[in-house]
Design brief:
single chain, 158 residues, three-stranded antiparallel beta sheet, 2 helices, 37% strand
Length: 158
């Protein structure tokens, strides 16, 4: 009679399970990274420099008008149009303004910084006036329906 000894071979983990676990761990890590990155706010834009603060007086806004209409998607759109002039002696590459919308009690309901002069729109030479058009479709219903406060918030000289 032959002696049969049963040998148990050690069980190994199938390669497929290792690959699945690695993919799940990598996916979870990527999700956590993207979630954390989306919650970080963008750094605030730099404040006006001393030169820019002094130059603001040479940038008049004229013919500012506001109209409210409905878009083709039945959404309310507020459009602000006007002109900006450059009465100074420097070429401007970028001018940004803060549009500040208030509620009937004087509380800020929306503050949005938008360019009215940029490389894409075209710079602003000394003595030149340029038309601008700003469209807003995200103003809260609590807005007081008045023209927002327009404040020059950024200037980059050419």
């Amino acid at each position: 009679m032959a002696d049969k000894t049963t040998r148990k071979e050690p069980r190994s983990i199938p390669v497929a399970w290792i690959v699945i676990a690695a993919v799940v761990a990598l996916g979870a890590g990527l999700f956590l990274y993207l979630d954390r990155a989306s919650k970080r706010s963008a750094p605030p834009p730099p404040p006006l420099t001393g030169d820019a603060k002094a130059y603001v007086l040479d940038l008049p806004l004229a013919d500012v008008d506001m109209q409210k209409h409905e878009s083709y998607m039945k959404q309310s759109v507020v459009e602000i149009t006007g002109k900006i002039g450059n009465n100074g002696n420097r070429v401007l590459e970028l001018v940004e303004i803060n549009c500040v919308f208030y509620d009937p009690y004087g509380q800020v309901v929306l503050r949005e910084r938008v360019p009215i002069v940029s490389k894409k729109i075209g710079g602003l030479a000394p003595g030149e006036f340029k038309n601008f058009r700003l469209a807003f479709d995200n103003i809260p219903d609590s807005w007081n329906q008045a023209l927002p406060q327009l404040v020059i918030a950024g200037i980059v000289f050419g």
